[in-house]
Amino acid sequence: xxxxxxxxxxxxxxxxxxxxxxxxxxxxxxxxxxxxxxxxxxxxxxxxxxxxxxxxxxxxxxxxxxxxxxxxxxxxxxxxxxxxxxxxxxxxxxxxxxxxxxxxxxxxxxxxxxxxxxxxxxxxxxxxxxxxxxxxxxxxxxxxxxxxxxxxxxxxxxxxxxxxxxxxxxxxxxxxxxxxxxxxxxxxxxxxxxxxxxxxxxxxxxxxxxxxxxxxxxxxxxxxxxxxxxxxxxxxxxxxxxxxxxxxxxxxxxxxxxxxxxxxxxxxxxxxxxxxxxxxxxxxxxxxxxxxxxxxxxxxxxxxxxxxxxxxxxxxxxxxxxxxxxxxxxxxxxxxxxxxxxxxxxxxxxxxxxxxxxxxxxxxxxxxxxxxxxxxxxxxxxxxxxxxxxxxxxxxxxxxxxxxxxx
Length: 407
Fold this sequence. Notes:
- The protein has helices at 23-33, 66-72, 85-96, 107-112, 117-123, 148-154, 158-162, 178-199, 209-216, 218-225, 262-272, 277-280, 287-292, 294-305, 310-319, 330-334, 337-341, 383-389, 394-405; strands at residues 14-18, 37-42, 76-79, 100-103, 128-133, 203-208, 246-248, 254-257, 324-326, 345-350, 354-359.
- It is an alpha/beta fold.
- A 6-stranded parallel beta sheet has the order 3-2-1-4-5-6, sandwiched between helices. A 3-stranded antiparallel beta sheet has the order 7-8-9, covered by helices on one side. Strands 10-11 form a two-stranded antiparallel ribbon.
């Protein structure tokens, strides 16, 4: 983390976030990690819905708003009623001094509240206006409510790809499509800041869950666009290839293989699992033979892996440099030594919950350390501080706070 006498990389970038849930806030938290001032403008009383979304039935139970924490650390929370004249005036003052405005409100709401790009660029022509949406800005679905479960996973074709041969999928993890989409939003903002450095002009950038889901599944969509013939789904025991299946072990764990380069890895794989007989077996000794006898090979491999515990298979496959992994549970995923070694999981000293850890944003920049992770702000925690810097006196701030609390 950054030294106390060293300025963070983005210390002179001022960001206004008018957003909720995960996609847009996740882009802003990366800027906050690198030292940008991120002022999160929240509505009175409720604030960002993500402050309470950890209470959704089925999610891990905790008193801590853990979804809000991971996407809002190191930000400042300001409560403004953007529907009121006084709240909107304060927001406009913020925009006048900002570098970036980020939102994931729907286009019709942005226009109704006078938060659209054309309005805000009149206040600050150099503003970078970043919009995240569910379905994109155009077309008949532009104003539909959009979440990653719908726009990213289902509409991209990813869900149909992983849907079981029989049965139903469990829910995708909370925010699992939002976070990669937030990286695209962050990239668009930084690209726009670079362009402004070149020409001195602000601009609007945008991305959507629909676009990012398509990009995530671009190879398979390109297959469709290229007229490729898709194969029908098969049950596991009759899969097209053994190379990426899950195999139960003796201690009821799942081993995942990833033998992409079978021409290279097949001999080592056979050695590792103690099945040298496969090398001389006419059913499995060549690539074509394995394809013709795939159900038999899958059955043989399944019978082999179930004879030993997962630790044994992890050790021998490591020894022979065969691509593989355990299917980690959440305890293992959170305490992964490789993640800790690469600062993927980092310490957090929370004023209420004490010493804990959090998930770092997923890239590093040489000679540009991130700031120390801090607690996500309480609702309106920085309202007085920020409004005072904008020139409001105590009486004016008190009046706004009273108006907000009355709602």
